[in-house]
Amino acid sequence: MTTDNQSTQVNEYEREPVPPKAHLGAGKFWGMYAGEHAAGTEFMIGPLFLLAGVSLQNVFFGLLLGNLMAVLSWRFVCAPIATQARFTLYHHLEKIAGKWLVLLYNLANGLLFCFLAGAMITVSATAVGIPFDITMPTVDDFYPNSAMFVFIVLAVGLVIAIVASLGYDTVAKFANIASPWMVLVFLACGIVAYKQLGATSWAELNSIWSESIVFALHKFEWRTRGLAY
To answer: Among residues 147, 86, 78, 158, which one has the least CA distance to residue 117?
Structure first.
């Protein structure tokens, strides 16, 4: 699709080096980087760690180690491929290992991101549902318990899909707008949650976490036996 003066077709250079005219500046990089990693993943998986009985110290250690490994992988794996070859990671992998390995990788990666994206869209939808006092599913719910919440999830997913379909440049612009205040939002949520728990020290916070693990494990045991808790 084209206009009179300019092509509006999105070219992501999937199978050719990115030309110098398409190189983007540091601002777009930091916007994409922050948008990729300043996400609410911990909001989603945090309760699962608690349900699995992971200690509070191990949660913090795991987050620090995982984020360090993510930064190092970007620096020593992704960045050299991007800056030297100017190929996408997928095309570079295809040149090294062949199309069939890339096909299997894409299938596994696609399946993984279907679940991850669905979970993250659901988490994002709660940010819309809370201010409007919409009934939302809890940890104990297997299915959605509100038609309006389902609508919000679909609407949020549609916005994300449209932004993604418009290409890297649009995603980077969107990230530059959204990312800076995302960090402040997560920090504010942590401070509010800490205050709601009534903890005044690390020892008290650790005690509350440990008690919650015991409660969650007992509740899970009762549910597996088909008993009401």
So the answer is: 158
Helix (H, G, I), strand (E, B) or coil at 148: helix
CA dist 122 to 40, 111, 153, 189, Å?
11, 17, 6, 17
- CA–CA dist 140, 143 (Å, integer): 9
Q: Which among 155, 157, 129, 123 is positioned nearest to 41, based on CA atoms?
A: 123
pLDDT in tens, 170-181: 887 887 787 777
Distances (CA, A) of 205 to 90, 115, 196, 214, 218: 44, 31, 11, 15, 20
- What is the rounded distance in angstroms from the CA atom of residue 136 to the CA atom of residue 146? 6
| Statement: the pTM of the whole predicted model exceeds 0.90 | no
Distance of alpha carbon 183 from alpha carbon 42, whole angstroms: 13
CA 181, CA 107: separation in Å to the nearest integer?
Answer: 34
Domain range annotation of the chain: 168-220
Q: In this structure, are residues 209 and 50 in contact, taking their beta carbons and an 8 Å threshold?
A: yes
Give me 175's structure tokens: 């990230």
- How far apart, in whole angstroms, are the C-alpha atoms of residue 156 and residue 168? 19
pLDDT tens digit sequence for 70-87: 888 878 887 787 777 777
Task: Give the chain's end-to-end CA distance (angstroms, integer).
Answer: 59
Q: Helical H runs in 86-167?
A: 89-97, 99-129, 147-165
Q: CA–CA separation, 163 vs 148, rounded Å?
A: 23
**Residue 93 and residue 83 in contact, taking contact as beta carbons nearer than 8 Å:** no
